[in-house]
Specification:
Blueprint lengths: L6 E4 L4 E5 L2 H8 L8 E5 L1 H7 L7 H6 L3 E4 L5 E5 L2 H8 L3 E6 L9 H7 L2 E3 L12 E4 L5 E2 L2
Parallel strand pairs: 1-7, 3-5, 4-8
Antiparallel strand pairs: 1-2, 2-6, 3-6, 4-5, 8-9
């Protein structure tokens, strides 16, 4: 598997495009390449390679499910702990992740399958579900989504 390829995959939240190639993801979605992407990691060991989690947030981050945290360094990371997406993600350690649609649009399998380099299917197929909640951590946490 090539980490710079764009994968269409059922993530832990919704159908997504995943890759280590951020510019390819921005191009596919037709979004501003300067707009940051969410990073998904396979467990907290991978998270610790990417950022330092403030001490008072460590327990919350470890226990969180389907929650993306924006860290003081202004990077957004969601830790995936289990499931099929975790198994896929573990092969890479971490990947940028974004919903599999045009920017601002709904999921369209034809668009998504043509845009992706590889399609990763699961036994349950693809389903558009709710995105992760996003919390900016700091002295006063702020819920962004």
């Amino acid at each position: 598997m090539d980490s710079s390829s764009v994968y269409l995959v059922q993530t832990d939240t919704t159908v997504g495009f995943c890759s280590k190639n951020a510019s390819a993801l921005a191009s596919i979605k037709g979004r501003d390449p300067k707009k940051p992407l969410i990073i998904t990691t396979a467990g907290t060991n991978e998270l610790n390679k990417l950022t330092r989690v403030p001490k008072k947030w460590r327990k919350s981050v470890r226990r969180a499910k389907k929650t993306t945290f924006v860290y003081p360094q202004n990077i957004a990371i969601r830790v995936v702990h289990d499931g099929e997406y975790f198994g896929f993600l573990k092969k890479f350690g971490w990947l940028y992740s974004t919903s599999a649609n045009r920017s601002g649009g709904k999921f369209d399998f034809d668009f998504a399958s043509e845009a992706a380099d590889e399609i990763v299917t699961t036994k349950d197929g693809f389903s558009e579900k709710a995105p992760s909640q996003i919390i900016k951590i700091g002295k006063k946490p702020k819920r962004l989504r």
